[in-house]
Amino acid sequence: MNMERGGGMIATSSARGGMSGPWLLLVLLLLTGCAGAYFREAPPPSQHPIHYALSAWPYQAYWTGIIFNGEKIGLTHLALTPDSPGGDRYELRSEALLAFHFLGFSKTVTLKAQDWVAGDLTLVRFVYEYDLDGQKMKLTGRVEQGRLTIERENAGRLSRETIPVAEAVYPISAVPLYPTLQGLEVGKRYDYLAYDGQRQQVVRVSQTIDAYQESDLYEGRAFRVATSAGGQDSTLWLNERGEPVLEMAWRGVLISTLETETRAKAYLARASLNKREVLLEYSRIRTNTTLPRPRAVTSMAVAVEGFQARSPCRPTPCSSADGRMNGATVGSSVSSSLPISRVSVRRSRHRSRRRLT
Question: Among 77, 108, 209, 240, which has the highest number of CB atoms less than 10 A from its own CB?
């Protein structure tokens, strides 16, 4: 799943941005390997193949939510508009925002892409802007006379690259639109080249429409499209309007869900408040001694027993974890650099030993 193109599904999410209802069910099904039982083959639509020209596209935009490991971490937006009235040029404007916590650190990723395409979705020119936690990069490029020329601006440095292309090139943001433009029909297969700005390379895209299905996981019926873009595989479900009602990648760990504009934008406010880790879960381990004044503790030495040989031991952001290992015991120290605002509290030190069972 490429963040510049997103995917989608209409769903209900909880107030904190996590998953509930059908999405929690979906994750459970994927984890237990039973997802196939919840997709049912449906009779093909009476009109086939289903296809639309860009001049008569059934929708102008869609918004999606991105769920990773059971937590909502971002959104994408894609809009299709004519570049000029009555012309045969169109603008694909796509945006993605990711905001999550990873190993104790807050991460924010913003991607903005503008692609100008012809009536058949072939790439004419583009402008991409990336902001990865404050590290910014801008790509501009165009396709002319069998060459894709790219200018890259990164950390104040400018560079240029020219890639020869022997066939038509499409923007990666066009991947969810391409099957609907060419025709939605079970058995169809499409192969083409696309420029992926995130990887900064031209990749081969293969899409096979292998089923027409209904499911409890989305409304109505949809064509299942197996997609491979430069070796990255995903499964996309497109309804008869060409809207991506569901997309799954990384064996279902990454899910894209179609949302209303209101719900998608509401995530922007929640993102700044969501402090849940996307990969870590924390649990309390009781010490074998009672701390008389736990709020006054500013440093602690910990010895954890029961590790297997060569177990990884990594420091946390507030830990000096030196990975001292004595047999199956790992030692670590944790200290706080924050000043204590309460009245004169004597600095305390405690030692604790726990055994993993």
Answer: 209
- Residue in 196, 190, 204 with CA at minimum distance from that of residue 5: 196
- Give 109's contacts (C-beta < 8 A, 6+ positions apart): 3, 74, 96, 97, 98, 99, 130, 131, 132, 133
**Cα 105 from chain centroid?**
17
pTM for this prediction: 0.69
The pLDDT, as a whole number, for residue 67 is 84
At residue 237, the pLDDT reads 95
The count of residues in the chain is 357
Q: Are 150 and 160 in contact (CB under 8 A)?
A: yes
DSSP 236-291: EEE-TT--EEEEEEGGGTEEEEEE-HHHHHHHHHHHTT---BSS--------SS--
The residue that leads in pLDDT, 344 or 240, is 240
Q: State the amino acid at position 350 in one-letter form.
A: H
Query: What mean pLDDT value characterizes the chain?
Result: 77
User: What single-letter DSSP state applies at residue 36?
Assistant: G
Q: Which of 250, 232, 234 lies closest to 69, judged by CA? A: 250
Residue 149 DSSP SS3: strand
Q: Is the predicted pLDDT of residue 163 greater than 70, yes or no?
A: yes
Closest CA to 69 of 103, 21, 27: 27
- Alpha carbon distances (Å) from 353 to 282, 296, 315, 325: 19, 20, 18, 14
